[in-house]
Every structure is written in structure tokens, then in C-alpha cells.
């Protein structure tokens, strides 16, 4: 099939490459010439394991091209819209200007029978509005909504082998077109839910709201554990054995961040309020508040460890991305903690295998080192905030030799506490005794 993908950010670049990998003929379109140039050269504009290999092989096969000119979408019959929907500058609602601009730009290039497929995360009601606009333009093209659930770090796999496919359609023919696009996933048994526009839009935000709630739930338990001497990790293990609860996404720590969960729950609350149903999901404000408190908690623990004398102390911050296997620092709890400690006068040295360039762009005032040992050397305090595998493999005895610190704060509850204690460290977890 001939596909176009409008918007080559995280979602769009991965989608374009994955669709070409599945054998489709794909043109990726973006207004940013720098991004298009990089993608044409087979380079991903961000760190995503496996993506460069797929880009290079799909470009070499001739099935994947990139352009800044939307007229090159003319040949395609299915047009994916994968542009960003960031948080508005003046509030929590999603900013839809890029979605609207993409539809406007596409309209002159549409033919009867073409299908526009929205993949961006949008407030419920957007697809209806856009479908009316497409119908009014009179090309005979239609619109479907097909949310994406990819996780950073696993984006290519999640796109090629999704957990489920969700189609919001108004015409059975559109579901058939999407079946053809995703034939390989459907062939391997991926469940497929065909529904209306608002359900498809809501599935995406509801899934992210649920995941965020699950994390804040366990972090709320961590807060209780902290004043009672309970261990939240053991608690999560125990409740996680109940199949109705499940152990995944019950890792307490410094909380969630990234380009999706925080902004999506805020936009969802804003949309529900517009719809006169703010009270239905008012609890998501609490989910957000619990999450932000955990960052504060790490800062408090650092102050305690340094006995209030933070000024001029060297603090080694291990990890700056919002999670491992990503270079993304958007709404990163780790970066927030580093900035707050710097604000208190600490000499913060941040290290991270992939995130330093992005972090430096946002916060040039912090010190950065690519070398973990350098960050740790003579540090008065060690704070782990992103659980990269290399930090889990650190030898506590060796770190003790090179750092001045006696305390390690494990903001992700992922280190082997017993091993660190055995090497003479005061180990401080999040909600662990
Ligand atoms: C998320 C959703 O998982 C994905 O389905 C959606 O399409 C986009 O948003 P992503 O942002 O890549 O994906 O990250 P995810 O793996 O969900 O982690 C989100 C945040 O939660 C990270 O900061 C992570 O460290 C944190 N987290 C996750 C916890 O604090 N505890 C957990 O138990 C799990």
C-alpha cells in the first residue's frame, strides 16, 4: 500500500519506518528540513533502540522516503497524521494547532477513497470535528482514528507487534483499509477493537490515565510506608501477585515523567472540565500532585543526608532521562531533582548514557559528565534517579573508594540494597525501610 505519514517526530518517524518494514511504500513528511535531512540519511533524530537499523534498511529498499513537501503525499491513499499535541503554554489543555495545520495542508492533496488516519493523542471530540472539515472540503476522502500505544525504548517493536489495534471509524470500509495496513499484526493474532471516534480517542487517554494512576497509587503507599516502617517494594510484590492487580507499573520511586503521561492526564482533566464532567476525573489532579511530591521527597532526602548543608556539596545525579533506554528529558523527574538541588546551592554533576545533550539544552547551568566515575569522584552524595542498567551494575565498594559520600539515595528502588549496605553505605530508598 502507499502510505504517507505527516509529522516525523517520535511517533511519526517510528510509524513511517515500521510501516515500510512491513512492506508498505511510505513517504514521511515534516516541515522541519533538518529533521528530514537526518531521516533521509538513515539517522534517527532521537535515541530509540533498533530504529536506525530499520530506517537504513527501509531506505535502502526504496520503500521509505522523506520530504518537506506535502505534495509528495499525492500518491498515497492512506495518510497518517502523527504530529505532536503538546500542553498549551497558557494552561493544561492540549494544543491542537499542529493537528489542524496538518489536516489543512493535506486537504488539497486528497482524492476520493483516501483515508486520513489520526494517530496523535487528542481530546475526545477532535476526530468528529476534523471528519466534518474533511467532508466539507468535498474530496471524497474520509477520516479514521487509530491511537498509538508505543513506549519509548520499545517503539519499533510496539508498532510492529502492538498489544491491540483500536480503530475509530464511521464506515466499515475504513476498518478494512486499516486491516490491510496492519495485516501482519492481525495475522499474528493481535486483538482489534473497532469502535466509534470518541471511544477510540478515549481509549488512548484512559490507558495513560490508568497507568499514571497505578504509579501514583504505589507512590502514595510509599508515602504511608515512610511513616510506618513498611517496605513498599515488598508491598507491591505482595499485592502484585493478585492477578487482578498485577505487578507491572507498581514500581514506587521518583514518579512518572516523559512526553505523554503527565501532559495527557492534564489535558484529559481540562477536556473533562470543558465537557462539564470535571468531577468524574478530578482524582487525576491528585495523581499529578502525588507524582510531583515524589520529586520533592528525593530533594528532602538529599537535604537530610547532607544534614541541611547542601551549599557547595558535590552531588552526583545518576540519570537524567525520564526513564532508561531513551534520551528524552521532557518532564523528567530526574532532571527536575537535579535542577532543584542546584537551586539549593549544591554542585550538581549529572551523568547519563544518552540524555546529556537534551538536558544541557534545557539546563545549561548544571554540570554534566559522560563518565559515571567522574560524576561519582569525590561526590558528597549519590542520587540515582533513572535506573539505567549501568548504574544497577555499579560496584558499591568501588564507588565507596572514589566518592566521599556515605549515603546513596535510590530514587527508583532498583539497587540491591543489601549489597550497598554490606559495602558500608547508608542506603535510602523511596518508601523502603
Ligand atoms: C507511555 C505509555 O506507556 C505508552 O503506552 C504511551 O503510548 C505513551 O506513554 P512512555 O512515556 O514511553 O509510554 O513511558 P512508560 O514506560 O509508560 O513510563 C512512563 C513513566 O513512568 C517513566 O518516567 C517511568 O520511569 C515511570 N514509571 C513506570 C514508574 O515510575 N513506575 C512504574 O512502575 C512504571
From TrEMBL:
Domain UDP-glucose/GDP-mannose dehydrogenase C-terminal residues, every copy: 316-417
Pathway: Nucleotide-sugar biosynthesis; UDP-alpha-D-glucuronate biosynthesis; UDP-alpha-D-glucuronate from UDP-alpha-D-glucose: step 1/1
Keyword Chaperone: no
Catalytic activity: UDP-alpha-D-glucose + 2 NAD(+) + H2O = UDP-alpha-D-glucuronate + 2 NADH + 3 H(+)
Domain of life: Bacteria
GO molecular function: NAD binding; UDP-glucose 6-dehydrogenase activity
UniProt keyword annotations, A-Z: NAD, Oxidoreductase
Protein name stated in the entry: UDP-glucose 6-dehydrogenase
Amino acid at each position: 500500500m502507499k502510505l504517507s505519514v505527516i509529522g516525523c517526530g517520535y511517533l511519526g518517524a517510528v510509524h513511517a519506518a515500521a510501516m515500510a518494514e512491513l512492506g508498505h511504500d511510505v513517504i514521511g513528511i515534516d516541515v522541519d528540513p533538518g529533521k528530514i535531512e537526518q531521516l533521509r540519511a538513515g539517522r534517527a533524530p532521537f535515541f530509540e533502540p533498533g530504529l536506525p537499523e530499520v530506517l537504513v534498511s527501509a531506505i535502502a529498499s526504496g520503500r521509505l522516503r522523506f520530504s518537506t513537501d506535502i505534495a509528495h503525499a499525492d500518491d498515497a491513499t492512506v495518510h497518517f497524521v502523527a504530529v505532536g499535541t503538546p500542553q498549551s503554554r497558557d494552561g493544561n489543555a492540549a494544543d491542537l494547532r499542529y493537528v489542524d495545520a496538518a489536516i489543512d495542508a493535506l486537504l488539497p492533496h486528497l482524492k476520493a477513497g483516501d483515508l486520513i488516519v489520526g494517530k496523535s493523542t487528542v481530546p475526545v471530540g477532535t476526530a468528529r470535528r476534523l471528519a466534518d472539515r474533511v467532508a466539507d472540503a468535498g474530496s471524497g476522502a474520509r477520516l479514521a482514528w487509530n491511537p498509538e500505544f508505543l513506549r519509548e525504548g520499545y517503539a519499533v517493536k510496539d508498532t510492529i507487534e502492538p498489544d491491540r489495534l483500536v480503530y475509530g471509524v464511521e464506515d466499515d470500509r475504513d476498518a478494512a483499509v486499516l486491516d490491510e495496513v496492519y495485516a501482519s499484526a492481525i495475522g499474528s493474532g493481535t486483538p482489534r477493537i473497532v469502535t466509534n471516534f470518541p471511544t477510540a480517542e478515549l481509549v488512548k487517554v484512559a490507558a495513560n490515565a490508568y497507568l499514571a494512576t497505578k504509579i501514583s497509587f504505589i507512590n502514595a503507599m510509599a508515602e504511608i510506608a515512610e511513616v510506618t516502617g513498611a517496605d513498599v517494594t515488598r508491598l507491591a510484590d505482595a499485592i502484585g501477585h493478585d492477578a487482578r492487580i498485577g505487578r507491572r507499573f507498581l514500581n514506587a520511586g521518583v514518579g512518572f515523567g516523559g512526553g505523554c503521561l503527565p501532559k495527557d492526564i492534564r489535558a484529559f482533566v481540562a477536556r473533562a472540565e470543558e465537557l462539564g464532567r470535571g468531577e468524574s476525573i478530578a482524582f487525576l489532579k491528585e495523581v499529578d500532585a502525588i507524582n510531583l511530591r515524589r520529586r520533592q521527597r528525593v530533594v528532602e532526602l538529599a537535604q537530610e543526608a547532607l544534614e541541611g548543608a547542601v551549599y557547595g556539596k558535590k552531588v552526583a545525579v545518576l540519570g537524567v532521562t525520564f526513564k532508561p533506554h531513551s534520551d528524552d528529558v521532557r518532564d523528567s523527574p530526574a532532571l527536575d531533582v537535579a535542577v532543584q538541588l542546584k537551586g539549593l546551592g549544591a554542585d550538581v554533576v549529572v551523568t547519563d548514557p544518552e540524555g546529556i545533550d537534551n538536558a544541557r539544552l534545557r539546563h545549561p547551568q548544571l554540570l554534566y559528565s559522560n563518565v559515571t566515575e567522574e560524576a561519582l569522584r569525590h561526590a558528597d552524595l549519590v542520587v540515582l534517579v533513572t535506573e539505567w542498567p549501568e548504574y544497577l551494575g555499579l560496584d558499591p565498594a568501588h564507588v565507596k573508594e572514589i566518592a566521599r559520600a556515605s549515603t546513596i539515595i535510590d530514587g527508583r528502588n532498583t539497587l540491591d540494597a543489601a549489597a550497598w549496605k554490606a559495602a558500608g553505605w547508608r542506603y535510602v530508598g523511596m518508601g523502603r525501610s
